[in-house]
Amino acid sequence: NAxxxxxxxxxxxxxxxxxxLRCSPMKGHSHVYWYRQLPEEGLKFMVYLQxxxxxxxxxxxxERFSAEFxxxxxxxxxxxxVVRGDSAAYxxxxxxxxxxxxxxxxxxxxxxxxxxx
Amino acid sequence: xxxxxxxxxxxTAQEGEFITIxxxxxxxxxxxxxxxxxxxxxxxxxFMLSSGKKKHGRLIATINIQEKHSSLHITASHxxxxxxxxxxxxxSGATNKLIFGTGTLLAVQP
Lengths: 117, 110
Hints:
The complex is a heterodimer.
Chain A (H helix, E strand, L loop, with lengths): L4 E3 L2 E4 L5 E6 L6 E7 L5 E8 L2 E4 L8 E4 L6 E5 L8 E8 L11 E2 L3 E5 L1
Chain B lengths: L3 E4 L2 E5 L4 E7 L3 E9 L5 E7 L2 E5 L2 E6 L4 E6 L8 E9 L7 E2 L3 E6 L1
Parallel strand pairs in B: 2-11
Antiparallel strand pairs in B: 1-3, 3-8, 4-5, 4-9, 6-7, 7-8, 9-10, 9-11
């Protein structure tokens, strides 16, 4: 039973390019969370998605960032026109139950390290 | 002031020592997670607890809801325990929109 799979592990983009980060949740999990870890900082929540729905995007920057979790395929975090400040590790986690369930477990992926040059 | 505070920020121990990492939080919570992150690596969920105490192998996690405090203990520490340990809380009524501490960097020397 594969865990949460994120790819690529490392991504290098020049300023102004687009970055696409993919997350395949664990089998049977339909709830996905994205978190960002800036250098020398703690993790921060970005967005919570269910299949075809964005449940909570209160942690997403207002511009250039978007996320989706289609009916088929992985969840995608998309960053348009990347800037150096977007360089960070982006982690995805999945859960089998809604996040409002008090004991809803979380399983994390290995992250994508984005470097913007 | 951060809503989740961990101490110490850095910890060096000798192999075999008993280790304690502390986490204090200032919000009402429905659950608290302890996570482990190896340098450049992924994140592993060690514990999720909402009351009392949990044990897994050499790891023990406790939480005191009234005092808004949790501790992670490692018994008979080993160099392979070297990692960053992160405390994260889920505020009451919220989804898994976790609030994270900044982590404790543990180095266990042989």
